[in-house]
């Protein structure tokens, strides 16, 4: 079965047929208790689907849509939530109260248009979904009073729109449907020797439409940090009609319409296809792990590297708390992972210069750089700290195991200018540590740079602590810690998200970031593209027509 057609599991990362190995869970439990000092953790069992709370559908689709719509319990449960920690907790415990009444799986753009027409005419809230991996609460139906303002809800699942429709090899662009999942995109491009070089952490479980709608951040630490950089043109179907931008390399004709779609989070319409910039696989790669005695020393080295315009593909800081959280407790210093890649020239000169900069800033690279790829007559060292970190980070076990082990785990990510980073970082660590102590009695917070820019880093904090056995209390603990952290972010006049999107979870702080009249402008645009206010109500912004 292809990745594009395999549904995501009801809770946690992975596909529906994935499971958490009991031995891995026990190992994680022992690690939390022995290495991180957590009190003894319970090991809970997920509520079976047949015992879960899933309300009966409030509406049925009309006969003309019935052939691609479903209201069965399993389908509706899998399209109830995204991947925010509270959503995973509720799903684990069988609470699918917000389940959509209908899951539509359109086969064509015409099917999408028909669903939007039906929803508009009948006051049905529409939640567009590709992979459903969002962590900001933007891929679930509305709840409470907002839900009561609608006749029902439909999850618009785009996974059947999963083709690379056309490839322009000369211009290195490809026309790709919005429901195409990450691995499927590159599988289809492989015959042309091309790839869409955008790899968010959710790559295997997410797809193009969701990436564009949420302004996804990818694996590039510099230059092409967000999906926006790869979008040449885009088509979005809206209740009021089709919104399609011209296919041009660049333009200076007023505000960029592509940028209106990127980050719109399904509130204006549904991204059904886009022309994307693609490129060959790199043939030269160089990477290295560099160690520092402090986060500020490491940050200074990174600042010098990006301001020297060396443009590393990977330039990430992981503090010693983060590496220990993933079981690499033998790495007892701050680690910077550097990586360079190229399709046509050796990368060793670039990484050699970056390592010189690191050494000048106090860094140490005991193993030296590792060169590999088809352009080098070498293979990647399987035992390097870069490889070990990548393997530990990609396993995803820490996040999934947190749920049955009653661990409060969350992230806060923002971006800050270099001059303000030291003071902000100190304030952030103090805030989160205090909140962990107040809510959970103890806990840990780690620091990472996910992306870096000449004027500052994108800083990513992860917290985890022993949580309450009661799911409602555990969600409350997460919410209070997250709110305290986001308040600190906004007290420093920053952004509540660098690449996790706004959704519902960050909306209050997003309103503090943007000018008031900008929010009013977005609501006016929504009023034109979605006059009935049925598109993803309550996400990104509130409007007069979405049930408020």
TrEMBL record:
Can you tell which superkingdom this protein's organism belongs to? Archaea
Q: Which GO terms describe its biological process?
A: lipid biosynthetic process
Q: Which Gene3D superfamilies match?
A: 3.30.300.330, 3.30.465.10
Q: Which organism is it from?
A: Natronolimnohabitans innermongolicus JCM 12255
Annotated GO molecular function terms are: alkylglycerone-phosphate synthase activity; FAD binding
Q: Which residues form a coiled coil?
A: none
Q: What is this protein called?
A: Alkylglycerone-phosphate synthase
Q: Does the keyword Flavoprotein apply?
A: yes
Family membership, please give it: Belongs to the FAD-binding oxidoreductase/transferase type 4 family.
């Amino acid at each position: 079965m292809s990745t594009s057609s395999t549904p995501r599991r009801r809770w946690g990362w992975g596909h529906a047929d994935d499971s958490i190995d009991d031995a891995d869970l026990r190992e994680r439990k022992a690690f939390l208790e022995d290495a991180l000092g957590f009190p003894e953790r319970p090991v809970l069992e997920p509520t079976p689907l047949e015992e879960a709370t899933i309300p009966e559908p409030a509406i049925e689709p009309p006969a003309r849509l019935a052939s691609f719509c479903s209201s069965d319990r399993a389908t509706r449960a899998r399209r109830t939530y995204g991947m925010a920690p509270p959503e995973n907790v509720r799903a684990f415990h069988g609470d699918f109260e917000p389940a959509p009444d209908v899951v539509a799986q359109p086969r064509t753009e015409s099917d999408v248009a028909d669903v939007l027409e039906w929803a508009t005419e009948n006051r049905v809230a529409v939640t567009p979904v590709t992979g459903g991996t969002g962590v900001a609460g933007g891929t679930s139906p509305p709840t409470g009073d907002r839900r009561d303002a609608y006749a029902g809800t439909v999850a618009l699942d785009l996974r059947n729109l999963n083709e690379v429709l056309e490839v322009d090899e000369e211009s290195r662009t490809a026309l790709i449907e919005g429901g195409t999942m990450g691995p499927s995109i590159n599988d289809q491009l492989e015959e042309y020797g091309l790839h869409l070089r955008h790899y968010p952490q959710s790559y295997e479980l997410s797809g193009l439409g969701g990436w564009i709608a949420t302004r996804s951040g990818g694996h590039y630490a510099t230059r092409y940090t967000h999906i926006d950089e790869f979008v040449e043109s885009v088509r979005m179907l809206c209740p009021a009609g089709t919104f399609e931008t011209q296919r041009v390399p660049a333009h200076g004709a007023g505000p960029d319409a592509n940028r209106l779609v990127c980050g719109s989070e399904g509130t204006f319409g549904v991204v059904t296809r886009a022309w994307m910039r693609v490129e060959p696989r790199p043939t030269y790669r160089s990477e290295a792990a560099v160690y520092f005695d402090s986060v500020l020393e490491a940050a200074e080295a990174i600042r010098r590297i990006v301001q020297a315009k060396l443009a590393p593909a990977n330039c990430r800081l992981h503090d010693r708390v983060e590496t220990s959280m993933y079981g690499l407790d033998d790495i007892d210093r701050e680690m910077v992972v550097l990586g360079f890649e190229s399709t046509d020239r050796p990368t060793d000169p670039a990484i050699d210069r970056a390592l010189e900069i690191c050494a000048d800033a106090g860094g140490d690279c005991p193993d030296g750089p590792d060169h590999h790829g088809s352009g080098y007559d070498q293979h990647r060292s399987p035992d390097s700290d870069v490889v070990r970190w990548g393997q530990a980070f990609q396993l995803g076990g820490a996040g999934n195991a947190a749920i049955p082990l009653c661990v409060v785990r969350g992230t806060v990510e923002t971006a800050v200018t270099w001059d303000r980073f030291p003071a902000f970082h100190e304030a952030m660590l103090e805030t989160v540590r205090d909140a962990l102590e107040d809510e959970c009695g103890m806990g840990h917070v780690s620091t990472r740079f996910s992306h870096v820019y000449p004027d500052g880093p994108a800083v990513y904090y992860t917290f985890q602590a022993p949580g309450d056995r009661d799911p409602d209390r555990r969600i409350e603990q997460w919410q209070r810690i997250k709110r305290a952290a986001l308040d600190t972010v906004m007290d420093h006049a920053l952004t509540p998200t660098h690449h996790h999107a706004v959704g519902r979870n960050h909306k209050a702080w997003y309103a503090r970031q943007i000018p008031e009249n900008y929010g009013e402008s977005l609501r006016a645009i929504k009023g034109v593209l979605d006059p009935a206010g049925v598109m993803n109500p309550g996400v990104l912004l509130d409007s007069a027509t979405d049930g408020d």
